[in-house]
C-alpha cells in the first residue's frame, strides 16, 4: 500500500485513519439504521457535556445573585436556580440516554458484524482456487482475517466514533472558550496538537513494524500449534522436540521484543513530554481564568463554567489520544482483511455442458505445468489418451508428477502449456460445475469428516446423501460395511474425536470410508483413486480396484498406486519420471520392454517371494 510507505509526513499521519472508512462501510452495510443511531448518539454525547458545564455556570451565577438580591429579585433568582437545576437534569438525562443507546447499538452490531464478516470471509474462500490455499502468504491472510473477525472491525468503528465524539466535544468547548479569549483557545490547540501528532505517528510506526514481521509471527503461531495440538504432540513427545521448538519460539520473541521495547520507550517519553506541554498550557489558562474573575472581567459562574470546560477539554484530549493509540491494531486487522477480500481470483469462464465427441474420453496433448514459484516443471509435455471403459494406472516415484496430473485433469490447476480435452472439448470450455460432477476423486490426503458414517460416505454424491441403500451399497464396494456394522450405531455413528461419542477409526478404516465415498459417486464418468489405499492390505486394495473397474463399461477409472498387484490389472499403464512419460502400455507389454517398469515390478515381486 503506497500511503503506508509514503514519506510525506501528512500522509503518514493520516494513514492511521485510512481503514476507518473501510470499517464504517462494512458497519453501514451490516445495518444502516444502527450506524445512523450510533452516529447521532455519538454527536449528542459529544456536544452535551459542554452544554451541561455552561448550564452549571449559569446555576452558580443564579445562586450568587440570590445571595445578593432581596425581595422580588431574590425570588426571581431562586426560580432561576430551580430552572437551571431542571435544565441540567434534563440535559444529563438526554446525555446518559445517548450514551446508553450507543452501548446498546454497539452490542447488537458486534454480533451482526461478527457474523457478516465471517460470511464474507467464507464466501470469498469458496471462490478461491487450490493454488490460493497453497500460497502461504495468502492463506495466512485468510487465517488471520478469521481469527479476529468478530472484534476488530467494530472496535475500529467505536474508536473512530469516539474520536469524532471527542473532536465534536473539543470544538464545542472551543466555541465556549472563544468567548473568554480566542488566545486561550489558540494556546490550548497549539499545545495539544503535538501530542496528538506524536501519538498518530507512533501508532502508524507500530502498524508498519507489525506488518513487516508477519513471517516471524507466523512461525511463532506455527510453533504454538505444533506444541499444543493433538496431531503434533505424538512426535513432539517421542522425538523430544519440545525444547528445540520452545527455544525457537523464545528466540523469535527476543528479536521482536527489542524493536517493540524501543518503540514503547520512545512512545512513553514523547507522550510524557508532549503531555506535560499540554498540561502546562492548561494550567496557564486555568490561572488566567482565576485572575480574570478576581479582576471582575468574568463572573464566578463563568469562571466555574470555564474551568469545567477546561477539564472536559483535557479529558477529551486524553481520550482521543488513547483512541488513536489503539487504532493501529485494528488497522492491522483491516489491512489484512481488505487484502484478503480484494485479492483478484480469475473467473471460471467456461459454460459448455457437453462435449462434441462423448466417445473420445480424456486426451492430454503436450501438457506441461510448473507450480508458481518453482523453476522446474512438475509435468513436461505429457500426451495421453484414455477412452471410456478403459482403466489407467499411473506409476512413478514420489514427486514424479502423478498427483499433479490428476490436479490438472480435475481442473484444480490449469496447464501452463498444452491442452486437456474431455469428450473432445477443452477442459477450460466446460462449465466447472458440470465438469466436477463428472469426476469422482479421492486423494491420498482425503478428508476425514467429523460427521456420521452415513454422511461421510453419502457426501460422495450430495444429492443422494439420505439414500441409505445406496450408501450401504457403496460401503460394500469400498469394503467398509464389515466394520461399520460393528460400530455402536452402525451408519449413524459419529466419527472422529471432535464431537461427543465420536468413534475414531484406524488409518485403513478411514481409507475404506473414503473409498466408499468414491463408489457413492456412481453418476460420475471418471473415477480417480490417488493412492488412498496405502494403509489397506494389498489383497483388499486389489479387490477394491476390481470393483472400481467393474463399475460400468463406459466409465474411465484412473488409479495411482505403488502396488503392482493392483497396477497390473489396469488396461493401460504409464510410468512417470520427472514429470515425463517414460514408458506406457499394458502390463504384458511393459514387462516385455524390460525397462523401468519391469525392473520395479521384479523388485517388488522378489520382495514377496
Ligand atoms: P507425486 O504425486 O508423483 O508424488 P506430485 O505431482 O505431487 O508428485 O509432485 C510433482 C512435483 O511437484 C514435485 O517435485 C513436488 O515437489 C512439486 N509440487 C507438488 N505440489 C506442489 C505445490 N503445491 N507447490 C509447488 N510444488 C509442488
Short structural description:
The protein is 65% helix and 9% strand.
Structural summary, described in words:
There is one protein chain. The chain has a six-stranded mixed beta sheet, with helices on both faces. Strands 2-1-4-5 form a four-stranded antiparallel beta sheet, with helices on one face. Helices cover 65% and strands 9% of the residues. Strand 9 and strand 10 form a beta hairpin. The chain is built from 23 helices and ten strands. Among the domains are: 11-27 and 115-341, ABC transporter type 1, transmembrane domain (ABC transporter transmembrane region fold); 446-523, no CATH class. The chain is of the alpha/beta class. The radius of gyration is 36 Å and the shape is elongated. Helix 3 (20-30) packs across helix 8 and helix 10 (214-228) packs across helix 11 (230-238). Bound molecules: adenosine-5'-diphosphate (ADP). Adenosine-5'-diphosphate (ADP) binds at residues 134, 371, 374, 378, 396, 398-404. The site of adenosine-5'-diphosphate has 12 residues, from helix 14.
Amino acid at each position: 500500500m503506497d500511503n503506508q510507505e509514503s514519506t510525506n509526513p501528512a500522509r503518514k499521519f493520516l494513514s492511521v485513519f485510512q481503514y476507518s472508512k473501510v470499517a464504517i462501510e462494512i458497519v453501514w452495510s451490516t445495518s444502516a439504521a444502527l450506524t445512523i443511531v450510533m452516529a447521532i448518539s455519538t454527536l449528542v454525547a459529544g456536544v452535551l457535556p459542554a452544554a451541561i458545564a455552561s448550564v452549571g455556570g449559569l446555576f452558580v451565577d443564579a445562586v450568587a445573585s440570590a445571595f445578593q438580591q432581596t425581595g422580588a429579585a431574590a425570588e426571581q433568582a431562586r426560580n432561576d436556580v430551580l430552572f437551571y437545576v431542571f435544565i441540567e437534569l434534563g440535559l444529563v438525562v438526554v446525555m446518559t440516554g445517548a450514551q446508553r443507546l450507543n452501548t446498546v447499538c454497539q452490542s447488537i452490531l458486534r454480533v451482526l458484524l461478527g457474523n457478516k464478516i465471517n460470511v464474507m470471509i467464507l464466501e470469498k474462500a469458496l471462490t478461491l482456487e487450490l493454488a490460493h490455499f497453497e500460497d502461504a502468504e495468502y492463506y495466512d491472510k485468510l487465517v488471520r482475517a478469521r481469527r479476529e473477525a468478530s472484534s476488530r472491525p467494530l472496535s475500529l468503528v467505536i474508536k473512530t466514533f469516539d474520536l469524532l465524539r471527542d473532536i465534536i466535544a473539543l470544538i464545542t468547548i472551543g466555541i465556549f472558550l472563544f468567548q473568554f479569549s480566542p488566545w486561550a483557545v489558540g494556546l490550548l490547540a497549539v499545545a495539544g496538537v503535538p501530542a496528538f501528532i506524536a501519538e498518530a505517528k507512533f501508532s502508524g510506526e507500530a502498524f508498519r513494524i507489525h506488518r513487516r514481521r508477519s513471517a516471524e509471527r507466523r512461525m511463532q503461531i506455527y510453533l504454538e500449534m505444533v506444541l499444543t495440538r493433538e496431531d503434533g504432540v505424538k512426535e513432539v513427545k517421542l522425538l523430544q522436540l519440545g525444547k528445540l521448538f520452545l527455544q525457537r519460539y523464545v528466540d523469535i520473541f527476543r528479536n521482536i521484543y527489542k524493536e517493540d521495547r524501543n518503540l514503547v520507550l520512545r512512545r512513553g517519553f514523547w507522550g510524557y513530554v508532549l503531555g506535560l506541554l499540554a498540561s502546562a498550557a492548561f494550567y496557564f489558562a486555568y490561572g488566567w481564568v482565576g485572575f480574570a474573575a478576581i479582576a471582575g472581567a468574568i463572573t464566578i459562574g463563568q469562571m466555574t463554567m470555564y474551568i469545567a470546560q477546561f477539564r472536559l477539554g483535557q479529558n477529551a484530549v486524553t481520550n482521543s489520544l488513547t483512541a488513536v493509540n489503539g487504532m493501529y491494531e485494528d488497522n492491522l486487522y483491516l489491512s489484512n482483511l481488505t487484502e484478503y477480500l480484494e485479492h483478484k481470483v480469475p473467473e471460471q469462464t467456461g459454460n459448455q455442458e457437453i462435449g462434441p465427441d462423448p466417445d473420445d474420453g480424456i486426451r492430454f496433448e503436450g501438457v506441461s505445468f510448473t507450480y508458481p514459484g518453482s523453476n522446474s516443471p512438475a509435468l513436461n509435455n505429457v500426451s495421453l489418451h484414455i477412452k471410456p471403459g478403459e482403466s489407467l494406472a499411473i506409476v512413478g516415484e514420489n514427486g514424479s508428477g502423478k498427483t499433479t496430473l490428476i490436479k490438472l485433469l480435475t481442473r484444480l490447476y490449469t496447464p501452463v502449456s498444452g491442452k486437456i480435452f474431455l469428450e473432445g472439448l477443452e477442459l477450460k470450455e466446460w462449465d466447472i460445475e458440470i465438469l466436477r460432477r463428472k469426476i469422482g476423486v479421492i486423494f491420498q490426503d482425503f478428508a476425514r469428516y467429523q460427521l456420521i458414517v452415513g454422511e461421510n460416505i453419502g457426501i460422495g454424491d450430495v444429492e443422494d446423501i439420505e439414500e441409505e441403500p445406496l450408501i450401504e451399497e457403496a460401503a460394500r464396494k469400498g469394503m467398509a460395511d464389515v466394520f461399520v456394522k460393528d460400530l455402536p450405531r452402525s451408519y449413524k455413528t459419529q466419527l472422529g474425536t471432535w464431537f461427543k461419542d465420536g468413534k475414531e477409526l484406524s488409518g485403513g478404516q478411514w481409507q475404506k470410508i473414503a473409498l466408499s465415498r468414491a463408489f457413492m459417486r456412481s453418476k460420475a464418468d471418471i473415477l480417480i483413486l490417488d493412492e488412498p489405499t496405502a494403509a489397506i492390505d494389498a489383497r483388499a486394495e486389489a479387490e477394491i480396484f476390481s470393483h472400481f473397474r467393474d463399475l460400468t463399461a463406459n466409465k474411465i477409472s484412473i488409479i495411482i498406486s505403488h502396488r503392482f498387484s493392483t497396477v497390473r490389472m489396469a488396461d493401460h499403464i504409464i510410468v512417470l519420471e520427472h514429470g515425463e512419460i517414460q514408458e506406457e502400455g499394458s502390463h504384458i507389454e511393459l514387462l516385455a520392454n524390460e525397462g523401468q517398469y519391469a525392473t520395479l515390478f521384479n523388485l517388488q515381486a522378489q520382495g514377496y517371494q
